[in-house]
Every structure is written in C-alpha cells, then in structure tokens.
Amino acid sequence: MAMTDPDTRNDHEFAVWAPIPERVRLDVEGVLHPMERDEKGWWRAVVEAAADARYGYVLDDDPTVLPDPRSPRQPDGVHERSQLWQPGPRAEAAGGWQGRSIEGAVIYELHIGTFTPAGTFDSAIDKLDHLVDLGVDFVEVMPVNAFGGTHGWGYDGVLWYAVHEPYGGPDGLVRFIDACHTRGLGVLIDAVFNHLGPSGNYLPKFGPYLSSGSNPWGESINIADAGADQVRRYILDCARRWMRVFGADGLRLDAVHALVDTTAYHILEELSAETDELSSDLGRPLSLVAESDMNDPRLITPRAHGGLGMTAQWDDDIHHAIHTAVSGERQGYYGDFGTLETLATTLRHGYFHAGTYSSFRQRRHGRPLDTATIPATRLLAYTLTHDQVGNRAIGDRPSQNLAMGQLAIKATLALGSPYTAMLFMGEEWASSSPFLFFSSHPEPELARATAEGRKREFADHGWDADEIPDPQDPQTFERSKLMWDEVTTGEHGRLYAFYRDLIRLRHTEPDLADPWLDHLQIDYDETARWFLMRRGGFAIVCNLGTETVEVPASGDVVLAWGEPDVAGDITRLGGHSVAVLRSR
C-alpha cells in the first residue's frame, strides 16, 4: 500500500491526556522534548518527526518510555514505543462499496489468528471467496486491537487504537477490509470497552481510566466517576476510528452489561448518536451489535423511543434453546432450556427469560420484547460463537459431539428463523478443529496464573485438571486453527453445500425475510420430538429424535437433510433430519 514517504520530516503535533503526572516529556526517536499542559490535563508539543517515527511519553521522573494511549501503531509490541501511522489510498473507492445494515443479514464470526494456517489479514483475504460462495453478508472479526503476546483471543487489549502487529498491523487491516468490500462483504470489528488486559496496561499511569468497580475480567472502565468525560471520549473516538479510518461497517460491542454507567446519558446511547452522525458523514450505513446477557429490549429500542439505539444484539437465549433441544445438554446455564416448548417460546418471543425466574441466576431475569414494534432482525440467532465453544473445558465444537443431521437441524432453525443470523468460522462444514482458550502472556507469573486459573475453574465443575489444555502452550493455539482441506470432503462437503443452499434460500425468498415474530407459527410434539416452524408459504420441519415421525405438514421439498416423504398432508422424516417445504 502506498504510504507517506517515511524519510519526509514535518512538524507533528503530539498530544496526550495525562492529568495524573506533574510532568510529561515526549520522546521521539530517543530525543526528549518538553510538553505543555492545558487546564483539562492534555499535554502537547509540536516536534519535527518522520512519518513513521517511533515515539512515547516519559512521566515525571520515571525514565521508562511509555506507549501512547492513542497509539496508531505498536510495531514492537504493547510495552514498547508507539509509531506514527496514516493510511494510504483506499481500494474501497474502486470497489463501489455502498454499505448495508446488518439487520436480516448473515454474519460470519472469525478469529484472524486461527482462520488460516498463517493467521494474518493477508492470508484471510485468500479465503474470502469461500465466504462469498457460502453467501454470507458480513465478516465479524474477533478483537484485533493490540494486546500482549503474539497470539490470543484479543479480549485483553491494552492499546485499543492500535492493530495487533502479528496479524499484519494497521496496513493489513486496511487491506483486509478493502478486500471484503470489493467482494460485497461488510466488516464488523469486535471492540472491547469494558476492561483492559493485564499485560501492557499503562493507562492508569496517565489518568483515571479505571473506576472503583470491577467485573469478571478485572477493574471496570471509568465512564461515570470523576474524570470520566475524557475516558468516555477515549472510547467514543476509538469506536469512530474503526469505522472512519479503517472503513469498518460497524462494531460488535463486547459484554455491554459490564459498562456500568450511572449518568443520565448512557455511553451506549452516546455511541449510538455519534455512530449515526458518522454514518451520515460517510454516506453509508453503520451498525452497532451489542453482546448483552440482560435480555433488556431497551438496548435495541431506538433512541427516539427512549432506548439506547443499538442496531442489534447477540441473543444467547436462542442459542441455548436450539442447542439444548438438539443436543440434550442441560448443565450450568442450560438448566432452564432443553424442551421443545422452551424452543418454541424462545423463537416466538425473542427472549426465553423475559421477567421469568432463571435457575442459573437464582432470580427473575429479563424483560418482555414488544414483538409488534421491534423486528426480529434486531436479535442475532446462532448455534455457535467463540464463547459457546472456547469457554468449554476442551473447546469442543458441536460437530465433535453431534451427528451431521443434528447439525443440519440447528443450522436450519437459526438460518430459517426471522432473526439476523450468525455463524462461527468452520461451522458450515462441521470443522473437526476445537476452538480452545489460548494466550501468550510474556510475563511468567501472569502466564502461570492464567494456566492455573483455567484448570482450577473447570476442576470446580468436575473436570480432571489434567484434561484442561494449557492456554499458554503454543499447541493449544495451533490445534485451534481450521483445517481447510475438510471443506470439500465427504460429509463435511455435504454439510457445506447444505449451509450454502440454506443461506441462498434465505436471501431469495421474501417469506423468509419477514422480520415480524407475530407472523411466525410454530407447532411441536414433545414426545415424538418433531418441531414445525411456518413462515409464510414455507414450512421448516425437524425431527430431533432418532425414530421416524409423521408431521402435519405438506408441500414441495425445497431443501432437506435426509429423505423426507411427503404424502397428502403428512411429511415422514427419518431420525435427525430436516426439510424445508414450499406450499403448493
């Protein structure tokens, strides 16, 4: 990519918010320069520097050069100096990408480091035609912000503005997004604003970035305590950067329930307003997808109607309902799920827990969704995510435990539903690779604590500690990489073709694009284990059991896993099979 000539030296204004130290000096290529502070705690200096100059900040009398909290690039890792960076000319202009909303789309979640053997943006580009053939509309990449070590999930980022260098750095991300756009694929960036990672977190030395509270991943971000205004601005500017500078079409916002905001203007509402403003400036749609376990419809209610204005949210209830009905698993947070009645309730209403008692939480949970005003496309349906695999003790996918017919049923229930749909990489061909929790913390004590904590967590749930993979072992990372030679072989290839045809049907049939849950009709037989979902002129017929069943549905078979027999008003289905019927 064409870049500014690094040998050209120009005056550059360096600025850093650092209200805590009494003195801040700028280090540019090893030369210290004084900085001046304003009344809001911002320090500034104008210094001649090359376009790719290395720089950092020295606080008070500590000689350590710290990276810029808003670092545009960290070529040597999160503990070292930052580097100036500006994007070159964009390829997307030639591609004619106009963007689209994620509502009603099919999203494909992937992890750059394990999507391909090389684990880089450029190698991921080589697989984009696979996604185009599959028919997905958006790629959602797990966090690519700078984090400690060479590989990890990315949720322990510490320099949110920089791009993880082993993936290809900021230039690699620009190439990846442009390559997606030229193929008609939108891109969502997974952004983590609810905590900071443990390795390379120097932000508290600069200012009050952390609050007095905490969440399961560490100290909470200060978005409501003293000094919060500039921290909120830090978040908002970072979010805008992914969309304006890199060209992303939106963000997936990690665990927004951990963003504790007691102010009258919630940070998510503020982000929604600024995203709409940026969308207008850029002339293309931008989407915000929130991960939340609150089952609170206010999250996806428009701001004009008193909501927070998120475009959509992940819906774990749908995952739990589908997965448990098909697999039979009932442990942990699956305890309230598993019946066909639960599956029907969840698909009809969006949330299962909607002011109802949650045995896992031991309290009432959720709030009813107004299905007459909020379309189903504001909720994401999926049978697999990085969390639902990687947070299992041995990272096992459903494909490692279920029959192919069961996987086809799960796919049809999610992709055939009125909801916005999401897949997790490799799901479409029943990848045999696990997706494990892996990390590469360079600090020995942190590495040991991570490994021991993982074993202890699952040992408490009855697992043999020796069976839990060490997240710091490089082989744990390597084992999680997809094996692409499976895609076209045997049953893997057959399932891939089924997914492709299912997505194509979803895209081409107007009845399957109807977003209103009030139009959804469901019937089931708990004992016989069949499930019937009607959408306009289509009937999705599933046999979740092992014995042949007769379902009161008829029509022409459009797509099937198994060999359905339609006779009169009855469809006979063998065990673990599914059919999509079009009314005659």
Automatic annotation (TrEMBL):
GO cellular component: cytoplasm
Coiled coil region boundaries: none
Catalytic activity: hydrolysis of (1->4)-alpha-D-glucosidic linkage in 4-alpha-D-[(1->4)-alpha-D-glucanosyl]n trehalose to yield trehalose and (1->4)-alpha-D-glucan
Basic and acidic residues bias locations: 70-82
Record site: Transition state stabilizer: 387
Region span, Disordered: 63-96
Annotated substrate binding sites: 252-257, 316-320, 386-391
Molecular function terms from GO: 4-alpha-D-(1->4)-alpha-D-glucanotrehalose trehalohydrolase activity
Active site residues of this protein: 254, 291
Main location: cytoplasm
Similarity remark: Belongs to the glycosyl hydrolase 13 family.
Name of the molecule in the record: Malto-oligosyltrehalose trehalohydrolase
Organism expressing this protein natively: Mycolicibacterium duvalii
Gene: treZ
